[in-house]
Amino acid sequence: MQKFNNGDRMGALKLFEESLQKSPTTSQRHAALFNSTAVHASFGDVELAQITLREGVNRGLDFEGALKSTDDPQLVRFQGSPQIVIQLRKFAEAVRRIKGAVASPADKPAAAPSGRIGASASGDGGNYLGRDMSGMLRTEMSGIDPSLGGIFRRVAGLLLTGLVLGAVLFYVGLKLAFPSYS
């Protein structure tokens, strides 16, 4: 395992990102993504660490195994606060569970009456990870004209309604504010 000091971290991060642009093997890709996650975590940037971790887990990276690995020369030593390590472990587990729940359509089991896809090992019924959310997130556009003319008519109607309503409320407000001038 390599250890990078503060001056080397940005250079190392650049090398890891460049290695991903080439045609790396699966092992090299996992190492580059884990190492990028480790560098981002060492800076305390959890969001960037999660981006690279998500890609790694989605591509088969065993984050927990990489954290514990001490004999792989491709992996850097993970230096992050205990809070960041815990947060990234939970994140990796959530990504792994979502990846398992969002299998290919041929592999996806039928939705249970509760809307869940398959059964979670932990049995957490209130957890949205692993649930089919497509019904809740669907937007129906039936009856709405998406053409330019339809959009123009809706905007013109909204503006006209706003102007008329604004004028009426303005005069009602004048009557209420100054009743003696009527």
TrEMBL record:
Transmembrane helix keyword on record: yes
Highest taxon above the source species: Eukaryota
Transmembrane segments: 155-174
UniProt keywords, alphabetically: Membrane, Transmembrane, Transmembrane helix
UniProt-recorded name of the protein: Tetratricopeptide repeat protein
